[in-house]
Amino acid sequence: MPDTQHHHTRTEKLLLEAARRFNATLEYEELIEQILRLVNAAVNSEGALVFRVDHDRTDMKIRYMNCRDCQVNVFHRELGQGVVGWVTEYIEPVIANDVANDPRVDLDLWKHFDASPHSVISVPLIGKGQMIGVIEAINKLDGEFNDEDLDVLMGLTNQIAVAIDNANLYRQMKREALEKNLLYEVGKNLSSSLSLTEVLKIILDSLLEAVDFDAGGVFIVDAARGTVDEIYSHGYAPSCEADLHLKMGDGLVGYVARMGEAIIVSNVAQNEHYIGCNPTTKSEMLVPIKLDGRIIGVFNIESNRLNAYDKRDLALMRAFAPQAALSIERARLHQRIINGEKLQQQLKIARDIQKSFLPDRRPQVKGYDIRGRNIPSGEVGGDYYDFIRIVDGQIGVAIGDVSGKGVPAALLMAAFRASLIAEIRNNYSIRTICRKVNRLLFESVEAGNYVTAVYGVLDSKNHVLTFTNCGHNWPVLLRASGEVEYLREGGPLLGVTDDAQYEERPVYLDVGDIVALYTDGVTEVFDESDAEFGLERLIGLVRANHDKSATEIQRIVYETVREFARPDFVFDDFTMVVIKRDE
Fold it and tell me: What CA–CA distance (Å, rounded) separates 494 from 471?
């Protein structure tokens, strides 16, 4: 009885100590260190390790601590290897006091432990009913592991699992906040410089704050020569310079430039396309840089560690790639202007930029006929519309018009689109999205530039369109009954003040209801008597063609506007989105 009481008292003390340690920090690596210290102390072991199941990895990342120096070391093993892999698969604890003859033991891993194989005790971690990892102690210092040790570890597993889950969630939230801030800062700096080297340095330096890499660079494709050349790099030795100029298809950079697909290489030594440059490089991640469907370059980072990158790192790098694309294109355009190229060529490039941001297909939404159309004028304007998938049953609808014409308008439109999509991905409310986009534009564009826009989310399951209007032409909601509502709620122009606030409004869409969003190129058209086409004529056209498809309504509006205008009228871009509920 005294032994049992002593065991219970010891277990209770360990649980209290665990609660004290685990509540002291949410930092993931600090928590892992505390867990390993506690495991070593709990069962008097020479060392302890922890493995957390990560479905984004193709290997096991194991953290180990030796009780002598209490330093945490990281090792990588193939999935399923060793006792850790066995416990992960079968979700059962293991006591092995004769590891030399136990086929489940990964003796190669022990070479990293600086310990002679003796004994192991390993238990699964269960969190919220799911297998989330394994804790393991090696080499009991005062004999062999027994059932009492197993009871102690099993008693700790619940607290360990909860603590790891909470710390990992906190780590993810911190990472998402950091990534969002980095994209925000890069977006601001992108608009402030036309120096390609300066902007690409900003992008690589910012990426380094979120993803650890030892060398990296941005490479540009020269389609005419069939080459891929470094335009900015970080961390490469001078002796590598010759290896930074490749033919299309050569090396991992050339391979990604030719194939157009992002890749993660966990071990470069096992990849047939890898060309050695840095002798210390062990793993690599590459993302193509695309503009208007063309591959114009490659984003590449390298690490001196195996298995350094995962899908989360790849997603962030993909978010940076469009910034690099825009930087490259802006720098090219700037150089062409300096070299005195004709205005028409500048406008073509700007038009290509503008076109690349417009949807290439109409959205398929059950119960709805949705169509967007942009017909450019002779001069490049700043009109924009988009359909943005959010989740199943919800689609974002945006339309906007930026101040000015030509290249500045196209670049301002690009900045607006990039900031809008970045904020939408953070799942904020519509009014918060617009408030944050406004602040970004205010801080990153020159005074006097602005954007008018309407952004809404169509919930096709509940038939609700929730929107906010940022100083834009009022969209019209034409009810099947013939009544008209104006979608005017929202706030001021984007980019004019830094503290603008926006409100949002939901509207229910019944069968036969039509929403028409448009830019001033539709209504601000004048005839020979200087009469304006205006909103009332637009409403009349939509009402008269209420039974037609969204495509037909847009075609009729466009043709009527063209016929209305006086012969010498200079048209603006015609941009219109029609949403019609069919069923």
Answer: 8
Task: Give the E-state strand segments of 4-129 in sequence order.
Answer: 45-52, 59-66, 72-78, 94-96, 120-127
**Would you give the distance in Å from CA 561 to the centre of its chain?**
41
The answer to whether residues 400 and 542 belong to one domain is yes
What's the 3-state SS for 211-223? CCCCEEEEEEEEC
Angle of the 147-190 helix axis to the 311-338 helix axis, nearest 10: 10
pLDDT tens for the chain, residues 1 to 583: 445 555 556 666 776 766 677 766 778 788 888 888 888 888 888 888 888 888 777 778 888 888 888 888 888 888 888 888 888 888 889 888 988 888 888 877 777 777 788 888 888 988 777 887 888 888 888 888 888 888 888 877 777 878 877 777 777 776 666 666 666 666 666 555 667 777 777 777 777 777 788 888 888 888 778 777 767 778 777 777 666 676 777 888 888 888 888 898 888 888 888 887 778 888 898 989 888 778 888 888 888 888 888 888 888 788 777 777 777 777 777 766 665 555 556 556 666 666 666 787 888 899 999 999 988 776 556 788 999 888 888 999 999 988 877 667 777 787 888 888 888 877 678 999 999 999 988 888 778 889 999 999 999 999 999 999 999 999 999 999 999 999 999 999 998 999 999 999 999 999 999 999 999 989 999 999 999 999 999 999 999 999 999 999 999 999 999 999 998 888 888 899 999 999 8
Residue 345, domain member (yes or no)? no
Contact 577, 385 (CB under 8 A): yes
| Domain of residue 159, residue span | 2-172
CA angle 447–448–450, rounded 5-degree value: 105
HSE, CB side, 13 Å, CA atoms: give it for residue 440.
Answer: 30
Alpha carbons 193 and 271: distance in angstroms, whole number: 38
Cβ 122 vs Cβ 109: under 8 Å: no
**Which 3-state string (H, E, C) describes 12-30?**
HHHHHHHHHHHCCCCCHHH
**Are residue 215 and residue 317 in the same domain, yes or no?**
yes
Rounded-to-10 torsion of CA 415, 419, 424, 429? -120
- Domain stop point among 172, 190, 225: 172
Domain membership of residue 353 (yes or no) is: no
Tokens representing 550 are: 């969204």
**Residue ending a domain, choose from 172, 187, 207:** 172
Q: What single letter denotes the amino acid at residue 551?
A: T
What CATH number corresponds to the domain at position 444? 3.60.40.10
Q: Are residues 206 and 110 in the same domain?
A: no
Residues 153 and 218 grouped into a single domain: no
**Same domain as 259, residue 374:** no
User: How many angstroms separate the CA atoms of 282 and 212, rounded?
Assistant: 13
How far is CA 408 from each of CA 113, 248, 347, 381, 569, rounded to the nearest angstrom? Answer: 60, 33, 10, 9, 23
Whether 20 maps to a domain, the answer reads: yes
Residue with tokens 């210390």: 280
Q: What is the DSSP letter of 243?
A: G
Both 401 and 533 in one domain: the answer is yes
How many domains does the chain divide into?
A: 3
